[in-house]
TrEMBL record:
Gene3D superfamilies with a match to the protein in the record: 3.30.70.330
Lineage: Eukaryota, Viridiplantae, Streptophyta, Embryophyta, Tracheophyta
UniProt subcellular location: Nucleus
Main localization, broad class: nucleus
Function: Necessary for the splicing of pre-mRNA.
Keywords carried by this UniProt record: DNA-binding, Metal-binding, mRNA processing, mRNA splicing, Nucleus, Repeat, RNA-binding, Zinc, Zinc-finger
Domain of life of the native organism: Eukaryota
Zinc finger (C3H1-type): 12-40
Residue intervals of the C3H1-type domain: 12-40
GO terms (BP aspect): mRNA splicing, via spliceosome; photoperiodism, flowering
GO cellular component: U2AF complex
Gene Ontology molecular function, alphabetical: DNA binding; RNA binding; zinc ion binding
Name of the protein: C3H1-type domain-containing protein
Pfam families to which the protein is assigned, alphabetical: RRM_1, zf-CCCH
Length: 148
């Protein structure tokens, strides 16, 4: 029985623990999810929730004033962000993978997933960024958590 539960932990067969939250640190049901939202205690990967603020996040292709945005400007905006965040994260260790979510769903938008080479590097980044995000008014609401 325990072996069976261990084998389905964090998978879609698990009716108790939410597989989406466990894997990606986000779930479309949020606090209303019927399954438990567990965070791994150790992982080489962190998620910076809703970190990338795309210029057209309200309506795709259009800015907040309703003006169309040049796709090249969008790309530039993204590349500037990517370079900055890569540089910032590299201070904590070797970045193996850096993904910025392009999904427009509330629980996914702008999520930045960072996989470090070592778990300790992810923990160091997590602790440092959690502290700095709390101090930065512009990113209130952004959270940093470990995920698989
Ligand atoms: Zn969930």
């Amino acid at each position: 029985m325990a072996e069976h539960l261990a084998s389905i932990f964090g998978t879609e067969k698990d009716r108790v623990n939410c597989p989406f939250y466990f894997k990606i640190g986000a779930c479309r049901h949020g606090d209303r999810c019927s399954r438990l939202h567990n965070r791994p205690t150790v992982s080489p990967t962190i998620v910076l929730a809703n970190m990338y603020q795309r210029p057209d996040m309200i309506t795709p292709g259009v800015d907040a004033q309703g003006q169309p945005i040049d796709p090249e400007k969008m790309q530039e905006h993204f590349e500037d962000f990517y370079e900055d965040i890569y540089e910032e994260l590299s201070k904590f260790g070797e970045v193996e993978t850096l993904n910025v979510c392009d999904n427009l769903a509330d629980h996914m938008i702008g999520n930045v997933y960072v996989q470090f080479r070592e778990e300790e590097q992810a923990v160091a980044a997590h602790n440092a960024l959690q502290g700095s995000l709390r101090r930065t008014a512009a990113t209130v609401g952004a959270t940093v958590i470990l995920c698989m």
